[in-house]
Specification:
Radius of gyration: 25 Å
Largest sheet: none
Number of helices: 14
Structural class: mainly alpha
Helix content: 55-70%
Length: 350
């Protein structure tokens, strides 16, 4: 899942803006007109049972989604699954698809018209969010085509960099995720199928950097932890994860890379859906392209950036492939020329 999810609490500014838009012309006065106040009171208490039902539905849906995607839960402030990594086994994915489809059916049983004005906005947002989750699960299926999705560094970094719990608790969660790493990578080798070659090349370069990042960072970040038993568990877990990563990198080089002939292009229809679900944009693609091509709708900074990109492209095309630093005859990125451990945290949060 992505970070598209919205909680009801996060919509508070939107609620305020909406209430201001709906106010009567005299709303700037200290006391709103009596009729407006009475109407607002009726809307707020019109169907409290339906509003409560919708709120409970949202809570259940979000919590269940966190169980399927533990790293996303950690990043979102839900820490019940901090010691877990995702499970992309076919049975687990099928169960998640059933859950989402059931949720869509349940959502349609909630009468939108019985919600207050902000509730209706929440309803529309969540319907699109859930439809987007189903799209990601059934059509994008990134866990099948993106080897980088299995780099556990992204799942471990928030446990290191975010001080949401005592160091001992976070270190125990790190141990849990390190212990899950061999299972997670073995699953990747069963699932990954025809990724784009560039994705595989990036993953081959990035995975070793994750281990060196952990070895250099964790002792400093958790220097205050004095529990020798916990440190012993960490060392065992790190050793197992390191061996699993080395095995996986060798597999990617020898087995996955030769068959990495897939495309990262979504295609017009899937891109249209992604725009709709992620950005709530339903403007036809040809219209968006024509707008983007108009210099008059871009800011001066955007025009400057586009010009710089064009100039860079012209310069790059004038250099023979064989003489480009970090490249080869086919224009592929050569091993060792992609940044790995340095800047890991900055990239994660930038």
């Amino acid at each position: 899942m992505t970070d598209r999810r919205l909680t009801l609490a996060s919509l508070a500014p939107l609620a305020l803006a909406f209430s201001l838009l709906q106010a009567a012309p005299g709303a700037a006065a200290k006391e709103p007109p009596k009729e407006a106040a009475e109407a607002a009171s009726k809307r707020a208490a019109h169907f409290p049972l339906m509003e409560k039902r919708f709120e409970q539905f949202v809570r259940r849906y979000v919590h269940a989604g966190f169980a399927f995607d533990p790293p996303h839960a950690t990043n979102s402030g839900m820490h019940a699954f901090d010691a877990k990594l995702p499970d992309y086994a076919p049975a687990a994915v099928a169960q998640e698809e059933r859950r989402i489809r059931v949720a869509l059916t349940e959502l349609e049983q909630i009468d939108r018209e019985q919600l207050d004005e902000m509730g209706k906005i929440d309803f529309d947002l969540y319907r699109r969010t859930i439809e987007g989750d189903l799209f990601e699960l059934t059509e994008e299926r990134r866990w099948e085509t993106d080897p980088g999705r299995y780099n556990v560094g992204w799942a471990l970094d928030p446990l290191i960099s975010q001080q949401f719990a005592p160091p001992e608790a976070r270190l125990r969660s790190i141990v849990g995720r390190l212990n899950e790493t061999p299972r997670f990578l073995a699953q990747a080798r069963e699932i990954l199928n025809k990724p784009p070659r560039l994705f595989t090349e990036f993953a081959i370069d990035e995975f070793p950097g994750t281990i060196s990042y952990l070895e250099a960072t964790i002792p400093r970040a958790f220097a205050s932890v004095k529990d020798r038993g916990l440190w012993s568990e960490y060392e065992v877990a790190l050793k197992g994860a390191k061996a699993a990563v080395e095995q996986h990198v060798a597999w990617m080089k020898e087995t996955l890379l030769p068959r990495s002939d897939g495309s990262f292009v979504l295609g017009a229809e899937r891109y249209r859906k992604k725009l709709y679900y992620d950005e709530m944009v339903d403007t036809p693609l040809d219209t968006l392209l024509s707008i983007g091509a108009r210099a008059d709708v871009r800011t001066p900074l955007q025009n400057q950036r586009i010009q710089s990109i064009d100039q860079f492209g012209d310069a790059a095309r004038s250099v023979p492939l064989a003489s480009r630093g970090g490249g080869n005859e086919e224009g592929q990125i050569a091993p060792g020329h992609h940044p790995v451990s340095q800047g890991f945290q900055q990239h994660q949060h930038g």
